[in-house]
Amino acid sequence: MPYKQAVDALKGEVDRLKLEITNLQVTHSAVGNITIGNYILTRLAQLKVTKMFGLPGDFNLGFLDLIEEHPDIDWVGDCNELNAAYAADGYARVKQNSLGVVVTTFGVGELSAMNGIAGAFSEMVPVLHLVGVPSTTQQKNRPILHHTLGDGRYDAYTIASKQFTISQAQLMDKHEAAHQIDHVLVQCITRARPVYMTLPTDMVHQEISGERLKIPLTRHPATNDPQTEEFVLDLIQERVQQAGGDIAILVDACVIRFDVQEEVKEFLKQTGFPVYSTPMGKTAIDEGYNRYGGIYIGTITHPLVKQRVESAKLLLSIGSLKSDFNTGNFSYNIPTRHHIELHSDHTRVQYGLFSGIGMKQLLPKLTERLQHWYPTAIKLPVEPFVNVVPNAQADIPMITHAHFWPRVGQFFLPKDVIVTETGTSNFGILDVPLPEGAKLVSQILWGSIGWSVGSALGAAFAAREVGKERVILFVGEGSLQLTVQELSPMIRHDLKPIIFVLNNSGYTIERYIHGRTRKYNDVDNWKWTSILDTFGANLGKKYQSYMVETRAELDKLLNTPGFGAADKIQLVEVMMPALDAPQALERQAELTGKGNTYAP
Amino acid sequence: MPYKQAVDALKGEVDRLKLEITNLQVTHSAVGNITIGNYILTRLAQLKVTKMFGLPGDFNLGFLDLIEEHPDIDWVGDCNELNAAYAADGYARVKQNSLGVVVTTFGVGELSAMNGIAGAFSEMVPVLHLVGVPSTTQQKNRPILHHTLGDGRYDAYTIASKQFTISQAQLMDKHEAAHQIDHVLVQCITRARPVYMTLPTDMVHQEISGERLKIPLTRHPATNDPQTEEFVLDLIQERVQQAGGDIAILVDACVIRFDVQEEVKEFLKQTGFPVYSTPMGKTAIDEGYNRYGGIYIGTITHPLVKQRVESAKLLLSIGSLKSDFNTGNFSYNIPTRHHIELHSDHTRVQYGLFSGIGMKQLLPKLTERLQHWYPTAIKLPVEPFVNVVPNAQADIPMITHAHFWPRVGQFFLPKDVIVTETGTSNFGILDVPLPEGAKLVSQILWGSIGWSVGSALGAAFAAREVGKERVILFVGEGSLQLTVQELSPMIRHDLKPIIFVLNNSGYTIERYIHGRTRKYNDVDNWKWTSILDTFGANLGKKYQSYMVETRAELDKLLNTPGFGAADKIQLVEVMMPALDAPQALERQAELTGKGNTYAP
């Protein structure tokens, strides 16, 4: 394993250096054999992009022609740009080692997508936002075109976008275009954040040299400095020695985002240390792994798990992201002197910071250094993380969260992709152990309601390609109203998600934070079982809707083999009490509500 | 009339000066008798705001309590923030002399609204974007809260918002709050552009002095400098003399936006000059006025109208906004030496610019100076702008644009509010003379598809209050998919728009610009006649849907008295050929397509 990774890293380094040389050799050659539009598509295809999301707008139509004609990339017409950005985000999350792409048009389209792009920034998801913009001539003369602010400020949208992307390319000069395109794409895939590119109408068909395309773009990070790395390895080894091997591992979001799941898995297997996950790290490692103890989330953690994590002499957290909802409102009880943190581009050992030492290359070496602890580590106790089987025949027939989540926990299968919406679902899923190869997709830091619907569209496309099986979406009826139209492309493209609509008469997460019985937290009760029919009846596609009001009905549906086979898009309206919520949400909401200090 | 206006202007000036004195006298008094939240609401109520649009989010819930409790302001829960911003825009457009308000939450909510706010900027619509943000303590400590970018940049959203609003207030200090609130509101209403305000959770209930509330906020612009104004009046009078009174008037968007409709009406009545309108100025003056000659839009204009406008010795344009779609792609044939332009804050006479001379005060004086031309002016010919009655029994049974628009033209009634979507509808409506007191609401410069649906929601609330009657929306099925959920609050709030869904199998405006038969311009054919039922069936409200496929069916429906009575929300799916469009659109699209220079 370490050899393979070392080779990959070196190959990446070689490609990076080759590209750098090409940049330096840039000649204003008149010879061109590929259009800029197709140069972009070739790069994206090399990076395994097969779907591009977005809407047509008159400034991107010429580029859409090229997408429609491309042999390996399909255009997914979305119903609006925010949903398209969410879809690109969901696609990138499931199709690791690639990226999501959303194509919009100048002003109106790109600004509609902005919340989705900012979410990808916050949650560290590699997304390219490609915007069709007026011609280079128009950008120089700045007439009052439609989609402009009417005051000649053609740069306003880019200025706004800079806040939410790590790199921007404005393709105004064909001699610079290839370099610019490569640069933003490398930034996107190595730093796992969104980037922004504007493509003027008259640049789409400009011809440039495709010579650079022979050098692949690498997503491998720069090499750790060997001497610093050696020092860090020695230091960690020493600390582990001092702790007598009494270590707990905590995996978090960036394990997924920075593509170190394999390295972490190997590290755990060779060392035998007990491992826990944060909410955002859930499914970074298989939850059926026998040294896995479940979710750690500060004071909200199950008491026994809390005690195990916090009493370890040393906590090694990998890829941590300490946001409020990921840490039980910052309630970790881990003294800095007991804490080692591995990150994508730095390492912390207790109070010491080591810049430039990234976990991708450090982990295999750490595995070698610590694997001799295996006999000791394997004896450290871990409470098994198991699903508590609910009783369908309980006195209360209604479907509460306490019942619902363990019950659907029994329904999950290996390799399911499970998408949960901000709100009750994000919290409800935490206590359910997910099967081998299952992947949880959620947006815990950014928390934009409605995100899960667009995200599920992208996730469903990606799942097909990466050998995942079913896509199962959990969304509240309030959240679904924000982005409901994105069910339509799911039907058109023959995607087959199972969509659980938790109908609990309003924004329950908000009710728990503030305004429990306020009207502003109510939402209209749509006829949810009609929605697939309304969007899909004219398309001649298969779809089916259900409503379940009791535990028995839920049970019966989940046990129907045809339902679980997921051979068509299905929507299940689950009637739940308005003021019922998962325990973890109740506790988080209480803490959040206090922070808001609304009380006069 | 001039006396009344002079008095109004002076009263405004007095209030402005009083507020300025109050600013200078600001004392850090501990005495407070009103909360900041209620101070804001009191100001908004004074400005005749009765509806506030938006969604709950945990950082705005405390403020929503106050809205829900306010006797004169109602909360309109929207289905998503973009739609809410569109609704605030539509509300402000119909309820002139007030403003629209959209309330969102930190990050996720406000960014979703951004396209709507930018549209209000572009189109000059007074909208307050009020954002509930984390507490002042949290903003100082900048923890990684949900809805943050994860990197402590709490100012990123404000930086982005600055691009699309003319004034921003961050209410971080209670002693500054009242002054800040007043300042942004005055900017909003006098300059007719959106403003941005952040309200931290812990500021909502802070008490401040309500003393300033006794001084009303004025929307009257600052007084023109008397000497410059006198000079300008003399100059215009001289030019009119030289032209022998051969003048045409062209009214445009800013007549509506800057509240000079009454002044213009009086000017036209007293002088008798012929008058024309641009697309964005349509209904700024009644289209039934006997000196009104229809729409001028450069080379796209009807030849006779074009000849009348361009052959006048002098063109006086009032409130002009020369965007591509408002001018037939900048194809005015008006030499600068024949052109006088009155604007909100400046005047142009031929090549000369007079800053600070605004039309609001100039117009009544100009009326006095030019009314003696009446006997000459009244003889200048004007072609009557009449509806061409279509033949329902024509050979072609299908509903084409050439048939549809004149036919619905017969259906319109005085005081209708007509909302048209970007796309075919914006162009189709141009040739239809609208009845007395009718108001056209459209977004020709910004042109964000889907806007009309949210806008119609806001327009419908406002229409009720300003004595308008029916609200009639024309939207393509492609555009409606972007924002469809906003039909839901229309049902909930018992609004009764008539919604014509022009189902022409895709984005027809885009097809005309580029990609006529491309798949990316297709949209799924929803079961449109089910949508009201899906959203409304559980609410026990009245609604009705229809589909018309032929001219005869359309005729029959429009002649049904119950239909025109608009006593419930109604949706009409109008089946139209995919490649049919209004003539004006065909010509505009051709010009726009050329500008894009996609051809390799």
Automatic annotation (TrEMBL), chains A, B:
Task: Give the Thiamine pyrophosphate enzyme TPP-binding domain ranges.
Answer: 439-562
Report the residue ranges that make up the Thiamine pyrophosphate enzyme central domain in this protein: 247-349
List residues binding Mg(2+): 504, 506
- Which residues are the signal sequence here? none
- Determine the domain of life of the protein's source: Eukaryota
> Where in the cell?
Mitochondrion
Give the protein's cofactors. Mg(2+); thiamine diphosphate
Keywords, in A-Z order:
Decarboxylase, Lyase, Magnesium, Metal-binding, Mitochondrion, Thiamine pyrophosphate
Which GO biological process annotations does it have?
aromatic amino acid family catabolic process to alcohol via Ehrlich pathway
Q: Which InterPro entries match?
A: DHS-like_NAD/FAD-binding_dom (IPR029035), PDC/IPDC-like (IPR012110), THDP-binding (IPR029061), Thiamin_PyroP_enz_cen_dom (IPR012000), Thiamin_PyroP_enz_TPP-bd_dom (IPR012001), TPP_enzyme_TPP-bd (IPR011766), TPP_PDC_IPDC (IPR047214), TPP_PYR_PDC_IPDC-like (IPR047213)
Q: Which ranges carry the Thiamine pyrophosphate enzyme N-terminal TPP-binding domain?
A: 35-146
Q: Which GO terms describe its molecular function?
A: magnesium ion binding; pyruvate decarboxylase activity; thiamine pyrophosphate binding
Question: Per its UniProt record, what CDD domains does this chain match?
Answer: TPP_PDC_IPDC (cd02005), TPP_PYR_PDC_IPDC_like (cd07038)
Query: Major place of localization?
Result: mitochondrion
| Textual note on the cofactor | Binds 1 Mg(2+) per subunit.
One Pfam assignment: TPP_enzyme_M
The Swiss-Prot or TrEMBL record describes its family as follows: Belongs to the TPP enzyme family.
This one is known as Pyruvate decarboxylase
